[in-house]
Amino acid sequence: MIFIKASIISLGKTNKSLIGNSIRFFLTRFFSTAASLIVMIYFSHSLPKSEYGVYQNFWVQLTLLSSIGGMGLGLLIFTYPPEVLKSLVLHLKRKHIVVYFFILILVGLCFSMLHSADVKTWLELGLYSSLFFIFYTFSILLESFLIAVHRHKLLIISGIAYSILFVLIGIYTFKQGFQLSTFVKLLLPLSVLKVAVYLKSFTGFLTSDEAKQSTGIELKSVISLWLHLGIYDLLNVSILWVDKFIISLVASTTTAAIYSNGSFNIPFIPIALSAVGNATLMQLHHAKNNVEKARLMQQVGKVLSCIAYPLFFFLLVNRTEFITFVFSSQYAVSVPIFLCSIFILPVRAYSNTIILQNLHKGKIINIGVAIDFTVAMLLLYPLYKWQGLAGIALSFVISTYVQVFYYLFYSAKFLRVPVLSLLPLKNWTLKAVIFLSVSLGLYAVLPHSSTMMLVSGIIQMLIALFVLRYENKNNHALQK
């Protein structure tokens, strides 16, 4: 009993900083994501489907190839505390940096060729898009490092400034008669400035006495984990975007626009999941035993369900109104695709690879990705024949559920705890009942219009915040 009580008290202190760190991580990427969403909505209402498809294809291809350029380093960064990161960076040799940038340039050239129909187009846009790709990918890497060393204030301020300019560039590009080349050329200097600001803070950390270098680092272990995480990051992002990527290459831009909007990933969910996941990884460094780790995962599940559950039931009930409001009525045909896509949200309440990453089980993580991809490919064609484009989206949702159950089984196995001890099932069931009832109740009472949908969304968001506050207070009570 004394051991369990000590574990609960320690966990309470850990979770207090977990929620605070999660919020800070979320804010560092919130504003740039919001700006991208604003411009996307603006273009979907203003541009013809064919031109809007060109814009969407650009970001789909950029997202997928930037994961190749990132080489899993972003995930690796959050696995170690600041002192270890400092030591690892200072151990890098010039040849390592040269090889990395050579790979980055090579992938950047491939990226520029994807959206260039001919040599003339590539000559006009290729150099700019290649450079933009390099600075975009490198800024993500620097941003991850600065988050890990707690440069949140700088990231939030720079994020706000970048977001405002990004939206203004989007509006200006449309007013000038939308051309992808114009958009990229205007974004390039903004990306260069962003990297310059991040680099200054990055080098400042390396030369300061803020964190002493860690000793006794096992480089073989680090390299092994990095290779596994690099493969995982590439395959995981590929699975998330491969359907859109393939359609961007083989289908018309109009079809690509319809499918992209239907399989639209709610942008704040990934950064919220990433924020909580990264904060959890940092807290797991302080967990003294497997009991603490299991309890921490339960608390993470309670926090994530405050995001995933209300959003899922809101979108499930208001799916038609949401699509027509966000993307305009010309994309109503995307609703069946969207309905299939949102069923991935409930499973996002479990942070599936955190324990495995903490335990350096890279091989298990990559096997899970391979299972995910294999199941998706096996289901893709039959479900496409059954449900059309919606079937493609559904195949990736089903494969994700299979992958999560695989990770859950092995996380419990390595921690030597029961599988259900990692999941707050009673908590999730109660929240599912509450948010489903609220969504259906508001939909039945309020008129079906865009304005009322927003009112419903605000009410449910306030309820979700109240529930999150309750979870936080309940966590604080564990300390007493």
From TrEMBL:
Classify the main location. Answer: membrane
One cellular component term (GO) for this entry is: plasma membrane
Q: What's the protein's topology in the membrane?
A: Multi-pass membrane protein
Q: Tell me which InterPro entries the record gives.
A: Poly_Biosynth_Transport (IPR050833)
Q: Which residues form a coiled coil?
A: none
Q: Which organism is it from?
A: Taibaiella lutea
| Membrane-crossing residue ranges in chain numbering | 21-43, 58-77, 97-115, 127-147, 154-174, 186-207, 219-242, 262-284, 296-316, 322-344, 364-383, 389-408, 428-446, 452-470
What domain of life does the UniProt record list for this protein's source?
Bacteria
- Compartment list: Cell membrane
What's this protein's name?
Polysaccharide biosynthesis protein C-terminal domain-containing protein
- Alphabetical list of PANTHER family matching this protein: O-ANTIGEN TRANSPORTER-RELATED (PTHR30250:SF11), PST FAMILY PREDICTED COLANIC ACID TRANSPORTER (PTHR30250)
What keywords tag this UniProt record?
Cell membrane, Membrane, Transmembrane, Transmembrane helix
